[in-house]
Amino acid sequence: METKKPGLKSKILHIVLFVLVIGTFTGLYYHVAKGNQSSKVIRFDEGWTVKLDDAVFSNVDLDELIFGMAKYGDRIVLTNTIPNDAFNRSALCLAIDYCATTIYVDGVKIFEYGYDLLEKGDILGYGKQIVSLPDNCAGKPVKIVFYVTEEEEVTSLFTPLIYDETTLMSDYLSPDAIQFAISLSLVVGGLFLSLITFVLFFRSYSMERLMCIGMFSLCIGLWSLANGGFTILFTNNFVLKTYLEYMSLYLSPIPILLYFREDVEQRSIRVESFIYYALMLIGIQLLLVSVLCQFMNWFHFPVFLRVYQTYMFICCLFILFVVIQDMMREKLHKILLGGMMTILIIVVRDLIMFNVTKYGWFGVTDGSYVSMVAFGGLVFILSMVIDYIYQVRSQVILTAENEFLSRIAYMDVLTGLYTRRKCEDVFKEIETSGHEYIIIQFDLNNLKSTNDRLGHEKGDELLIRFSKCLRKTYTSQEIIGRMGGDEFIVIIPNGKRYNVEESFARLEKNIADDNAKSNDIKVSSSYGYCRSTEIPEPTARAVYIEADRKMYLAKQRYYLENGGRRRGDNK
Q1: How far apart are CA 455 and CA 198, in angstroms?
Q2: Which residue in 441, 424, 426, 442 sits closest to 546, CA to CA?
Q3: Boundaries of every domain in the chain
Q4: Higher pLDDT residue, 67 or 59?
Q5: CA distance 272 to 85
Q6: pLDDT at 370
Q7: Is residue 306 within a helix (H) or strand (E), and if so which, with residue range?
Q8: By three-state DSSP, how is residue 144 classified?
Q9: pLDDT tens per residue across span 6-42
């Protein structure tokens, strides 16, 4: 079965369409991002006094302040005066990184977080917190106190932002609206795909790869929602946000590895299989250990981050190797390779930006950089879906070709019954089944004389009519075949309680009904059968030979009784 490959014009049109779509969405993204820079947001960055234990930094710009790595138990105190142009109804957006936090305005405590969790030894988490400021707070003193609860997590401070409460949510989301939409789409699409394919997986293992795509999409979407600070739209619980972010990140390599399981197993290379299953086992163990340590409060999730980054890097190298090998050997995964390279470049970029902003390299201290992993994840997931569709399409074509070849090999063209080759394969199956089986051998009477007197066309008609009578008599549980010429066979795999004589009576009735409709040639047959229990040490071949012998005796009686032909048979 030959498939038509796309021509040069078709390829050019597809490339042009792809470029137009990507260009349109890219232009839309920059237009929306540029148009959404709200004027109702005040950067509260200048004029701060920062005290870190005994060190004091006066009149500093938080965008430029780098004070080194804070240790567990350090207290960071920030004081300033709320800008005079603050809104009548203002809200302060503050980044809290694993710190117990207290906020005072004009000497009055308006917010407190984390001290109850600190007493229990639980992780405090991190994220952006929006705190309503008192009305008409402009010009009043503000003090923010951070108590550091994790090692190596605080090196600089995120610049607080002051929003107008009346337009808070739209102003908060506007700069990252595209990222939020992508992240939410990945979560919803991944959840839907995971649930549907999980149900179908137990009926068809071909759903495994699609289920892996759904799980990975869900992981990347949840991580991006949490990392981008969008969980604040649903909950102010930093602990839940932290659990979502780290668990989705730590779980994400497993569905990707599962996606390539068939590729690794099909090549049957021992070293490659060993590395694959070792990576899978390590990933599961790392996840279980990190979750156990977190729940038992032995170590918190951030402690394992560097280990996971190393593990993910190794997994990426291995998967990249598998994809390149498949592409070179079978021309597979071309689009997937492009998607994978895209997300790898974006992940490397994000890791660099994360470390630059976290550790204050090159004087960059603002930790509000926009992660592009959601976009990279979307590209990679789309490439996985296309790759999956391509593989399913190839499998469908291959299956259709195999079925076509099987039909030629196992199906008699004239009668539509099984061929001798198929019946001999069934012989091998019934010999090892352990059940009593029956083989019935049929021989169509007067086929040669019909061919000689009326032509082969009439003889073929006789064969077709008899095969229809057989199909009408016997069910799909029995195997009906044409052994060649005028010889037919019926194999009953489980014949312990099967009444053969009743089947012969049904067959005679079906033949009589067929003959009643025909004024031309008449159908008749001779038959014999043998049960496997009739032979001491039966083989299917021996049972078949015995059934054939009985059929031959029946055919001799037929000609003796009818003087060479049966009454009412072909004249």
Answers
A1: 60
A2: 441
A3: 42-166, 175-403, 420-562
A4: 59
A5: 64
A6: 65
A7: helix 305-330
A8: strand
A9: 566 666 776 677 667 666 666 665 555 554 444 578 8
Cα–Cα distance measured from residue 266 to residue 273, given in angstroms and rounded to the nearest whole number? 10
- Cβ-in-10-Å burial (0-12, 13-18, 19+) of 539 comes to middle
Contact 487, 470 (CB under 8 A): no
Cα angle for residues 485, 487, 490 (degrees, 5° grid):
140
Strand order in the sheet with 90-97: 41-43, 161-164, 90-97, 126-132
The pTM (predicted TM-score) of the whole model is 0.62
pLDDT confidence tier of residue 88, bands split at 50, 70 and 90: confident
Report phi then psi at 265, rounded to 5. Answer: -70, -35
Contact 474, 480 (CB under 8 A): yes
User: What is the Cα–Cα distance from 349 to 352, expressed in whole angstroms?
Assistant: 5
96-100 mean pLDDT:
88
Separation of alpha carbons 149 and 118, rounded Å: 8
Q: Is 77 left (phi over 0), alpha (psi -120 to 50) or beta?
A: beta
How far apart, in whole angstroms, are the C-alpha atoms of residue 349 and residue 73? Answer: 32
> Which residue shows structure tokens 């149900």?
199
Residues 456, 450 contacting (CB under 8 angstroms) = no
Q: Could you name the CATH architecture of 420-562?
A: 2-Layer Sandwich (3.30)
DSSP β-ladder status, 90-97 and 126-132: antiparallel
Give 364's contacts (C-beta < 8 A, 6+ positions apart): 356, 357
Mean of pLDDT over the chain: 83
pLDDT band at 109 (very low <50, low <70, confident <90, very high): very high
Tell which CATH classification among 3.40.50.920, 2.60.120.260, 1.10.10.10, 3.40.640.10 matches the domain 42-166: 2.60.120.260
Supply the DSSP symbol for 564: T
Asked if 264 contacts 322 with a C-beta cutoff of 8 angstroms, the reply is yes
Q: Which amino acid is at 151?
A: E
Please name the residue that has the structure tokens 């972010």.
Answer: 245
Q: Would you list the DSSP string of 86-114?
A: --SSEEEEEEEESEEEEEEETTEEEEEES
Q: Which of 518, 514, 512, 544 is nearest to 531 (CA)?
A: 544
Q: Do residues 379 and 328 touch, judged by C-beta distance below 8 A? A: no
Q: Is the sign of the CA dihedral 245, 250, 254, 260 positive or negative? A: positive
Residue 187 and residue 229 in contact, taking contact as beta carbons nearer than 8 Å: no
Handedness of CA 84, 87, 91, 96 (dihedral sign): negative
Distances (CA, A) of 287 to 191, 368, 409, 430, 466: 20, 28, 51, 49, 66
Q: Beta strand pairing status for 75-81 and 141-148?
A: antiparallel
Bridge partners (DSSP) of residue 457 are none
Q: CA separation (Å) from 221 to 24, 135, 199, 373, 401?
A: 23, 37, 22, 9, 39
pLDDT value at position 111? Answer: 94
Residue position matching structure tokens 């352990």: 434
- Mean of the pLDDT values across residues 298-320? 88
C-alpha–C-alpha distance, residues 294 and 125, integer Å = 12
- Distance of alpha carbon 448 from alpha carbon 469, whole angstroms: 20
Domain 175-403 has CATH 2.160.20: no
